[in-house]
Amino acid sequence: MILETFKHFPDFELLDSGNGYRLERWGAYRLARPDPQAIWEHQLADAEWKKADAIFNSKWQVKTSVSQPWPIRFPLPLKAGEAKTGEWSIKLLARLSTFKHTGIFAEQAANWEWLTEQVQNTEFKAQKEQLKILNLFGYTGAATILLAKLGCFVTHVDASKPAITWAKENQIANNLPNDSIRWILDDAAKFVKRELKRGAKYDGILMDPPAFGHAPSGRTWKFAEDFPRLLADCTELLSTNAKFLLVNAYATNSSAIALQNLLEDSIKKTGTLESGELCLKQNSGRLISTGIFGRWSK
Ligand SMILES: C[S@@+](CC[C@H](N)C(=O)[O-])C[C@H]1O[C@@H](n2cnc3c(N)ncnc32)[C@H](O)[C@@H]1O
Q: Ligand 1, from 135, 136, 158: best to mutate by most atoms within 8 Å of Cβ?
């Protein structure tokens, strides 16, 4: 069981947590947001919390001036022997959004680092082939942008039009060509079924299914009921040379062990399986668990 945290994301810091809140730095701004898990005491002095540019208390209260959207950069590692000129990072647009969100889940940076390793370790590029990746429940597209920037062709699926619009803004902010990403506004499970019928194959699949969600048709998604079927369908979409499958889950009643067991049963391919809790590490070293993940790689 792994307690996973990102290694290098200079634009984000978890400064402190406690009394039901997190204090974070997102690029130029300090934000204080509720986190019901933080049932312990603050470690930093109140004066540090008072420096927050915005606080979420049922809605955002901006105390300084926050220019929106503002860019958050995630650096990309260079492949051995590769010389890149100019800046080599992705840019994600952050906003003070509804339900205390910023459009970016910072803890996902640990998954972005893992995905980068999987993609950069591949022999595909040497063969001048492009990895085909499927990102389900892709939200504002952080992982989609990362993978497209690394040279993959990404199919991004989400049931929310505003989320896809934001993700497309991220595509433009990163100067990615139109044909680097296929945008699909649809129910993830339905889209996967259609891809199975069409005989589509993917070299890597990632997904972040919510505990509850709504398809554009209004159909309700329930993790415990719908996820096992979706995972089984996704494993059939993996190509012979597939490199990875990654599942992330927030706020479900499932444990990382349940995810590991399900992956063991579903993935018939050889490779490495691992699972654990996706965490944020605050500057003092204290961890916050944000969700669970399970991943397979060849
Ligand atoms: C937790 S967010 C994903 C966060 C993302 N992995 C990231 O790091 O930026 C869940 C997303 O699932 C989408 N969603 C909910 N139900 C869906 C469904 N049935 N089909 C497709 N997308 C759905 C929501 O619109 C939302 O964007």
A: 158
CATH number, domain at 153? 3.40.50.150
Structure tokens at 13: 């810091």
Q: What is the pLDDT of residues 188-201, one digit of tens each?
A: 999 999 999 999 99
Q: How far is the CA of 210 from the centre of ligand 1 (A)?
A: 6
Give me the number of domains the chain comprises: 1
Summarize pLDDT for 52-72 with one digit per residue, the tens: 999 999 999 999 999 999 999
176 close to 218: Cβ distance less than 8 angstroms: no
Q: What is the pTM of this model?
A: 0.95
Rounded to the nearest angstrom, the distance between the alpha carbon of 33 and the centre of ligand 1 is 21
- Alpha carbon 227 to its chain centroid, in Å, reads 17
CA of 189 to the centre of ligand 1 (A): 12
Q: Residue 71 — φ and ψ, nearest 5°?
A: -85, 140
**Structural domain range at position 138:** 2-297
- Kindly report which listed range (6-10, 83-87, 141-145, 280-284) carries the lowest average pLDDT score: 83-87
Mutate to test the pocket of ligand 1, among 115, 137, 195, 208 (most ligand atoms within 8 A of CB): 137
Cα separation, 237 vs 242, whole angstroms = 9
